[in-house]
Each structure stands twice: as C-alpha cells, then as structure tokens.
Amino acid sequence: MEWENEAPQLAKLERSNPFTVPTNYFGELQERINQSVFMSSLEKTTNAGFATPPNYFENLNEQIISKAKLSTFVNAQQGFSVPDGYFDQLQQSITAKTINHKKVVKLWHQPLFKYAVAACLVIASTTGWFANQQYQSRQLRKTELAKEQLLYDIDESVIIEYVQEAQLGKTANVTDSEMEAYILDNFSTTDLSNNL
Prior knowledge:
This protein is mainly α. It is 72% helix and 0% strand. The chain has 9 helices and no strands. The radius of gyration is 57 Å and the shape is flat.
C-alpha cells in the first residue's frame, strides 16, 4: 500500500508480466540455434566457391560442337557386324546344339545322394523303434494300472476268506512224511536249528 501512495501513476498501470516469450519458443529453440550456427559458418567461408578455368565461357561453344561431331562420327563407325559366313553355318550350329545333347544324371552315382538316403533310413528306423518302445511301455503301464485297480476293488473280507481256505486246504491234504521231505529239501540244518 505504501508504494501506491508514493507512485499513484505506477499504481494505475495495468498489471501484467512484461517478460513473455512467443508461443512454441522453446520447441523451436534448438532449430533456430542450429540455423544461426550454420549461417555463421557460411559467412566465414565466403571466399571459397566454384572456380572455372580461364577463358572457359569464351571457348564453351566450340567445345560443345566438337564433342557432338566426334560422338556422331564414333557411333557411325561402330555398328552391328557379323562374321563372314555366319548365316550359312547358322542352321547347322543350331541343330548340332539341340539334337545330340542329352545329359543323363544318375542319382545312385552321386555320393551325396547315397549318404542322404542312408541317413534318412537310419533316422526313420530309429524313430520307428523309439515310437514302438514308447507304445509298449504305455501299454504295460495301462495293464499294470488295470491290475492294481482290480486288486483295490476286491473286498478285504473276500481276501481273508481266500487265505484261510488256502491254509486249511494245505494242512488237510499234506501228510507228515510229505511235510518232512519238503522241510529237508528246502531248509538247511542251520535254518532248522535256529527256528526250533
């Protein structure tokens, strides 16, 4: 408030920022700097430029006319030419090139082809053997799983009854002399002494 009393004219002025930059100033700044550096480098090299030989433009007309005459003269001397007797022997040379030349390439005489066939046979037989082994192992696993599933499906009471019947059947049908012969054949004297 104090400065408004001391400078009333200044206080009446519109308040705005006097420090402004044009729109997109910083976006184009790098390009402007590069252009000014390029222009300053051009100003330093004003002495360098294109130079022509002395009396170039005075003799230019004569040089152009002489080069044009020389090129027409050279083109007139060149041209198409054929050897002597070319058309007389043309029919014979064409028929000789087309009729008698038959090229036969035998595949079995190429060593690379032999090795390629052998490699293909080895790869095919190895792949077949490996696939067969995999198939057989999968089938074996399937049958084992089926057998295990059958065992899980059997009731425990049925298994116990079967074991008991088997034990009763063995003891009833075996005589003492047969049991004695079996023990003597299958067990040693040390096994017998340890178990008694």
